[in-house]
Amino acid sequence: MSASATATVQAATQVRTERLFVALPLPDNAVADLAEVVSDLNIARRGAPSRPGAAGRRPASGRLVRSENWHLTLAFLGDVPVSRSAETAEVIAAAAREAAPMRLCVSGGGRFGRGRYSVVYAGLDGDVAALVDLVHSIRAGLLAGNLPVDQKQYRPHVTLARPGDRVTNQQAAQDLLTLRRYYGPSWTAGELVLYKSDFGKGPVGAQPNYTAVAAAPLGGR
Fold this sequence. Notes:
Blueprint: H1 3-13, E1 17-25, H2 28-38, E2 71-81, H3 85-97, E3 102-112, E4 119-126, H4 128-144, E5 158-161, H5 169-180, E6 183-189, E7 191-198, E8 209-217
Antiparallel strand pairs: 1-2, 1-7, 3-4, 3-6, 4-5, 7-8
Helix pairs in contact: 3-4
């Protein structure tokens, strides 16, 4: 078989995939309230974007997560064949039907990791136990369907930034103290969303775009 024919066969048999995760979106008022606090942190003063809608908004550095990308991840699947997207959505819908709407609130914060791999996050308060039960239900459904899912210990959080070494230890400590004192508005989470993550053809370090693939109401409303 010629090289060109081999390449044609390989292209035809290559499985198209999309990068998927399951999350609870944050309501606009929770995003706006948190953005007011984040915009005054040290991690937001080094080439990061200002609060949403602010005049003279600066370009994103890629270190501070855009507020429109804030969400509460429940399950990360990674690359899933496009042909199985509908099946994945059905698994998510089944888990959602068995759950009930829950009251949640972005509260507190902290940091994962150290040095260049550190992640600054906002924490969560409210019906956290019910949320963790939902996470376990989603994971169980995905595994039963032979679908991929990250099984690391679940810690509910909203990723805010990956500052690396762009802030000093003192500045990082100041930010963490501010976040630990934060208590945002509560809301009733009533919908699970299956998102796909797409980096497109942007430059290295660019942030992904998240697109909703499917949504399912909690409790089957």
